[in-house]
Design brief:
The complex is a heterodimer of chains A (393) and B (391).
Chain A: H1 19-51, H2 83-116, H3 121-135, H4 139-151, E1 161-163, E2 167-170, E3 173-176, E4 178-181, H5 185-206, H6 212-216, H7 218-237, E5 240-243, E6 246-248, E7 251-253, E8 256-258, H8 260-286, H9 290-298, H10 303-333, H11 337-340, H12 345-356, H13 359-388
Antiparallel strand pairs in A: 1-2, 2-3, 3-8, 4-5, 6-7
Helix pairs in contact in A: 2-3, 2-8, 2-12, 3-8, 4-8, 5-7, 8-10, 9-10, 10-13, 12-13
Chain B: H1 16-24, H2 29-55, H3 59-63, H4 65-70, H5 78-99, H6 101-119, H7 124-147, H8 150-169, H9 184-210, H10 215-230, H11 233-247, H12 256-281, H13 285-293, H14 298-313, H15 315-328, H16 340-348, H17 357-386
Helix pairs in contact in B: 5-6, 5-7, 5-8, 6-7, 6-17, 9-10, 9-12, 9-16, 10-12, 11-12, 12-14, 12-15, 13-14, 15-17, 16-17
The chains are: A alpha+beta (393), B mainly alpha (391).
């Protein structure tokens, strides 16, 4: 009797109907397909390269770059320095735009976002018009506009516009007061650096004091301690001399001059990204329920306390993730520097591959560089986010 | 005799115009200060703009209008572009008649652009075309309004894109106009439409692949999405312009504009995939379990149950992405295609218009603004109609 029933056993299922086997087969087929396409492309590339007489190697990076760069953060000599070093200069120039751009775009976005929520109808409308205009036109055209119509149309150096604080605007860019380091500058930097952990210690110690004036403003007190240390060190060591820009012939002497290209790129990125950040800030603040704010006020928190302890932490949770995206966009959009001729990573790489013809290698290097920049940026923002996010119980 | 207590009217200072002004502009001393400053700023900006618009020489725009619209598209073949405009005018009009809503706004926008174009100083034959398009738009409305051919209209829209594409490119008896000769707004719109149409299915596939139960497929999709999202669009565009010929067999050559389309599709697909993934994650597990319990296999579950709900939730983000694709088409100017921005620079290099850059930039920025703003307006309307986020 028993023998008439088939025994349930996995061995009876033929392998081509076994879902586990099929799954593995499907994946093998997929990987094989991807590899096949990759092999086809690679083959074409090798034969294509052979046709134009090139090979896939990174040796060319050691050759002398032999092209001049208009602005460099480190000393650079085209006759002796290599392509790799030029590429590195490009990365530094890109970082210079990204970091400064993120700071100013955040400030502008915060300002416009708050203005958008103002009870003053006119202010709110101005902010709205700003946001709509700059969000709905391409960044490239804005950059062209700032560069060709804005900065290059400014008066010549001799007739430059002087703003209060010895700031000069001209078609050679923006001249700002800066400083010249003296011999003791490095020592001062070290002292200022060492003071940071000390100030943090002060912050932690003040956290134990229960007097409201000390406890609540412990961040401010700690900052004051750091500032005092740095200032005392500055007075004692005299680490830098102020340097005020002045017109000398056809150019500026002293101070620091931002090139028209850098100024246009920075302005374009800041105004464009600021419009997006404004909308994010507005959405974040509006996401805080009214009742929460009212409850905080009912508990006796002052307006500033409500903002600092209740509204801001709640709003930031909503703001940080899209803000991260905007920072990443700003970093990636900085590659449009090529439109105004600012020597950033992409611009310099473009010159390198025009000179050497090693297109594939250079493009791989560009992509790798931007990927690393993006990953580092999003890692930093994720760290901020994890500090702020809701702790669920 | 009436004992009803006398109701006092609210004080004149808190209603009407005065009340509104007090409440919204002069509620506190610092608000009043802000209002005054804002008025000054507005005065400076508006008077500056007005001065610029009225005193600037706009002949650079009117003289180069053809270049801005179609680029170097052969003059004797322009009727093909004009015919395409007629076709789309009719379809937009018919959609207005059938669906109202967003289609109505689109039709009114198109109508006002056509009227503006017909009023502007253009040649007689061009004015004839604009008026023809306007007439067809209203004819379409009448047809759509009285017959309501819903299904047919959807098919017509789907059919119109390839048909118009073939008409513009040239097939059969009519001479071929390779995409290298397309330019201006024509190229911008073509790049945007092809980019959207190609990146959407690709993005959905990538998103589904990212959720796949097969680790190999999942890894591939994640790798692709994260790689593409980490690099700037301009590098992808350059890569395809320069490297695609290298990767393909020698016999195959791809037109430059087509390479740009491929770049847009591949780039935007990664972003679409992330948006769709958000939509997929918002669908509760119960939906797919219920579909399986009803006997649907996993492909049908996805197609009939999950995707329709997921995609509906992603409309706002998706439109935002497509707007940004539309704006990003300007980047092809950097890789040498005759897009609006490049034509603007070329026009300002003509000896008679040397340095008239501000006018051309304002003009093309206005084109981009009108189209991008209407897209976001349309998406907001669509969201309301479909009730996204209200369930």
């Amino acid at each position: 009797m028993n023998s008439s029933l088939p025994a349930p056993s996995a061995a009876r299922v033929p392998f081509y109907r076994d879902i586990r086997v099929l799954r593995i087969l499907a994946q093998i087929a997929f990987v094989a397909g991807v590899l096949l396409v990759g092999w086809f492309l690679w083959n074409n590339m090798v034969s294509g390269l052979a046709r134009i007489g090139g090979t896939f190697s990174f040796d060319f990076l050691d050759n002398a770059a032999s092209f001049a760069l208009s602005e460099t953060s480190l000393p650079y000599d085209p006759a002796t320095d290599s392509y790799l070093y030029a590429f590195f200069i490009g990365i530094l120039n890109t970082l210079r735009v990204i970091i400064v751009g993120i700071v100013f775009a955040s400030l502008l976005g915060l300002l416009a976002g708050i203005a958008r929520l103002s009870t003053n109808w006119l202010i709110s409308k101005i902010a709205q018009v700003y946001v709509e205009i700059f969000r709905n036109t391409p960044l490239l055209i804005q950059l062209f506009f700032w560069y060709f119509v804005g900065i290059l149309k400014l008066p010549r150096v001799r007739d430059s516009i002087e703003l209060p604080g010895s700031i000069y605007l001209s078609n050679r860019g923006l001249a700002l007061p800066w400083f010249t380091p003296t011999d003791t500058f490095v020592l001062w930097l070290v002292i200022a650096g060492v003071s940071i952990p000390f100030a943090y210690l002060v912050y932690r110690l003040l956290g134990r004091v229960r007097a409201p004036l000390i406890y609540e403003w412990r961040g401010g007190w700690a900052f004051l301690v750091w500032l005092a240390l740095a200032l005392v060190a500055a007075v004692v060591l005299d680490p830098f001399l102020p340097s005020i820009p002045e017109i000398r012939g056809f150019n500026f002497g002293g101070g620091i001059t931002l090139s028209p290209e850098y100024a246009a790129l920075l302005l374009g990125l800041v105004v464009y990204t600021g419009a997006f950040i404004a909308e994010i800030v507005r959405a974040g603040i509006q996401a805080v329920p009214r009742g929460v704010v009212e409850a905080a006020r009912a508990l006796g928190l002052s307006y500033i306390q409500t903002l600092r302890l209740v509204v801001l932490p709640l709003a930031l949770r909503v703001i940080i993730p899209p803000l991260t995206n905007q920072y990443l966009n700003l970093a990636k959009n900085s590659s449009l520097a090529i439109a105004v001729g600012y020597a950033d990573l992409f611009y310099i790489s473009n010159t390198i591959f025009n000179q050497t013809g090693q297109t594939l290698q250079v493009i791989l290097m560009i992509m790798a560089a931007y990927l690393v920049i993006s990953l580092v940026l999003s890692a930093i923002m994720n760290l901020v986010n994890s500090r702020l996010k809701l702790v669920e119980r | 005799m009436s004992f009803a207590p006398e109701t006092l009217k609210p004080p004149a200072a808190s209603v009407g115009v005065v009340g509104w002004l007090r409440q919204n502009l002069f509620s506190t001393w610092y608000n009043s200060l802000l209002t005054v400053i804002a008025l000054l700023v507005i005065y400076v900006l508006v008077s500056g703009l007005w001065n610029f618009v009225t005193t600037a020489d706009w002949s650079i725009v009117t003289a180069n209008m053809r270049l801005f619209m179609v680029g170097p598209y052969p003059v004797e073949q322009t009727w093909r572009v004009e015919t395409s405009v007629l076709v789309f005018s009719f379809l937009v009009g018919a959609s207005w008649g059938v669906w109202q809503g967003v289609a109505r706004s689109a039709a009114l926008l198109l109508a006002s652009i056509l009227i503006a174009a017909a009023v502007l100083p253009v040649s007689e034959s061009e004015r004839f075309w604009f008026i023809g398009a306007l007439v067809l738009l209203f004819a379409g409305f009448a047809v759509g309004h009285f017959t309501k051919p819903r299904r047919l209209l959807v098919w017509l829209w789907l059919l119109s894109l390839p048909v118009v594409g073939l008409l513009l490119y040239g097939v059969g008896g009519i001479p071929r106009v390779p995409t290298d000769q397309w330019g201006g707004l024509l190229l911008t719109l073509t790049l945007a439409i092809v980019g959207i149409a190609a990146s959407f299915p690709l993005g959905v596939l990538l998103a589904v692949g990212r959720q796949s139960a097969y680790p190999a497929i999942r890894a591939f999709c994640i790798g692709y999405i994260e790689l593409v999202r980490g690099v700037p669009l301009i590098t992808v565009l350059f890569m395809l312009q320069i490297i695609m010929p290298l990767f393909l067999p020698q016999e195959i050559t791809v037109e430059r504009a087509v390479r740009a389309m491929v770049a847009f599709a591949l780039f935007t697909a990664a972003y679409v995939a992330e948006i769709v993934r958000g939509g997929l994650q918002s669908i509760p597990r119960g939906q797919s379990e219920a579909a399986q319990a009803l006997g649907l296999n996993s492909a049908l579950t996805l197609l009939l149950v999950i995707l329709p709900q997921a995609l509906r939730a992603t409309i706002p983000a998706m439109v935002g992405q497509f707007i940004s694709l539309f704006k990003d088409t300007s980047l092809v100017a950097i890789v040498g295609l005759l897009e609006l921005a490049r034509i603007a620079n070329a026009a300002a290099n003509q000896p008679e218009f040397l340095g008239n850059l501000a006018q051309v930039y304002v003009f093309i920025a206005a084109i981009y603004f009108i189209l991008a703003y209407s897209m976001s307006y349309g998406s907001r309307r669509l969201e309301k109609t479909l009730g996204v986020g209200e369930r």
